[in-house]
């Protein structure tokens, strides 16, 4: 058993991001401990080490993009997704000069720098967004195999026409550099299961499902905690969680996310799932879009939501 008799519950994550905020809040405020879970997290380098952590059972689940278990299915390994934390894309599109009058069609036949390092999600989403808006994604030139910080420096130095990176880094860059602006925050561009929790299907047991349910209860509480409060009221916590970002930027991005459905419930949204599956298929990662039930088990999240609701009604 873990500390003070708690059940060990180790998560392996592909990164440390503001769109994971409800999990961090749940951990800081003891919501996982309330469910008997000794929650710990590691971030392997490179990021795909999360799959090794699942395979050797050093982690009970991975946190990352649903595109990985989707493309692995029926090819390498079956993974089951049981919860979602980020319901929207946390990227932003940067341009030089003012963003006034910007339209996605402006990006046709331009050079776009795409943040990499944490997987393929950035390029996958951006190219899907172009296709959804009738823009030929193949007519755009991409620079996408470099580190995000390196690309950010190169963009500010004159490389490319646009830079797609995480919203927090984009806001921080704009705060430092008046010569660039945010043309679009992708959090406004519809539901998508950006970040989910998953594990190897063959290793799921009744005990694992029960632990997942309790994890989701804590996560639901973390989501509710964030959604019920203006980020200004917990700016000190944001400063501690993201010390390398100006706290005013962290507050602004958090409130943007709150207002634009970044965090909803721990259930994977079906509409967003179907949309992303089409995007993954069009990108060549899948032969055909997967059905929701073939890869998602919503039972732990649904049971957690019923449990939280019952607790609230009993108060």
From TrEMBL:
It comes from the Eukaryota. One of its GO terms (biological process) is thiamine biosynthetic process. Its cofactor is Fe cation. Keywords: Iron, Pyridoxal phosphate, Thiamine biosynthesis. Pathway: Cofactor biosynthesis; thiamine diphosphate biosynthesis. Homodimer. Belongs to the NMT1/THI5 family. PANTHER family: 4-AMINO-5-HYDROXYMETHYL-2-METHYLPYRIMIDINE PHOSPHATE SYNTHASE THI11-RELATED. Responsible for the formation of the pyrimidine heterocycle in the thiamine biosynthesis pathway. Catalyzes the formation of hydroxymethylpyrimidine phosphate (HMP-P) from histidine and pyridoxal phosphate (PLP). The protein uses PLP and the active site histidine to form HMP-P, generating an inactive enzyme. The enzyme can only undergo a single turnover, which suggests it is a suicide enzyme. This is 4-amino-5-hydroxymethyl-2-methylpyrimidine phosphate synthase. It comes from Tothia fuscella.
